[in-house]
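Thread: Newbie trying to understand structure tokens

Hi all, I'm a second-year student working on a class project, and my supervisor (Dr. K.) asked me to get a predicted structure for one chain before our next meeting. I've only ever worked with sequences, so writing a 3D structure as a token string is new to me. If someone could post the tokens and maybe explain what I'm looking at, I'd be very grateful. Here's the chain:
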Amino acid sequence: MDIKKALTHSVFAVSMFVVATPQGMAATHVERDKKPELIGMGSGAIAGAVVAGPVGAVAGAIIGTVMGQNASFETLATEQQDTIETMNAKNTQLSLVTQKYNEAQLELARLRAEQHSIEDIDLAMNIQFRTSSAEIEPHFMIQLV
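---
Reply by user tm_fold:
Sure, no problem. This is what the structure looks like when written as tokens:
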């Protein structure tokens, strides 16, 4: 009867372990290093088996796996924080470039408006001399005064 009870507890513990994992809870899959999780499961199972036998092995494996997941997620969080800081630095650089671009666009618009105002100036030219003559015609004298 004790073996059956121990086996029942072991099956229950393993099923609880499967439900407690992110894959069992249908969480989104995140690429991370699984070595700490596997090392934790193995060392926990060995330590649990030494201390409490088969039931201890299952309990140790569960605890070791959770501890390994924790270490793996801490490493992943650090990597993601570094990525966020890098992206923030790039965003700062891009905002400066965007600001300079907007300033250049405003300057270009101002220069185009100025160019159009210069083109709108009516320039007129009158020739005030007759051919082969050095004298100014009398009707042009009024313009020169």
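A couple of things are worth pointing out once you decode it. The chain has a mean pLDDT of 80. The chain is about 75% helix and 0% strand. Feel free to ask follow-ups in this thread.
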